[in-house]
Specification:
This protein is α/β, with parallel strands linked by helices. It contains nine helices and ten strands. Helix 1 runs parallel beside helix 5 and helix 3 packs antiparallel against helix 5.
Amino acid sequence: MESPAVQREVIEAARPSEEIRRTGLFNQMKNYLGRCVIAVGLLLAGTSTFTSQAPSVEGQVKAGFLYNFAQFIQWPNQAFADRDMPFTMCVIGDPFEGVLEKTVERETANGRRITVRHLGSADNLRGCHLLYVAKLEAKRGTEFLTAANRIFASEGLPILTVGDSEDFINIGGMIRFTETGNRVRFEINPDAAERVSLRLSANLLRVAEIVRPR
């Protein structure tokens, strides 16, 4: 049986601000949250212990944001080897417990199917279009950001970098998740994205907190 308390927690964690409601991002997130609530109900069916068997609310919300980042950011043509190359999300440290794969299943980004890869080494970063560095792997953030910069410098292939650690923007990351109360928000350093030829939607910038390295 579905737990109304868990459903409310999922929705509250990503409840949009008034600014988000005035942009296309709100409709995208609203559709995603609808899927989240359904997924939570299915996960709860037949189990009485949500926390031990279901993905975290935070993971569900962040998976939705990663999907939407792919919709509201434009990668240059050279980022893709050919027309059939998928849009690849790469993850180091996995807080999603399969939710990210379910979120992007049968979805596309600019007409390209979306795939998810889990990385153990920065040597495997080639072919990624978006990199998420989870909290548990924050200490390896510099290693992966350096590898991403090296790939752009040598091959002109940009990688959107997203993370959680407090110093993520300061070490060169582009987007950092933050938590305000029980809500997930995000900061963007647009300069870092523009340096690698990523074009950020004005709607995305409008709902983010714009920051620069200190």
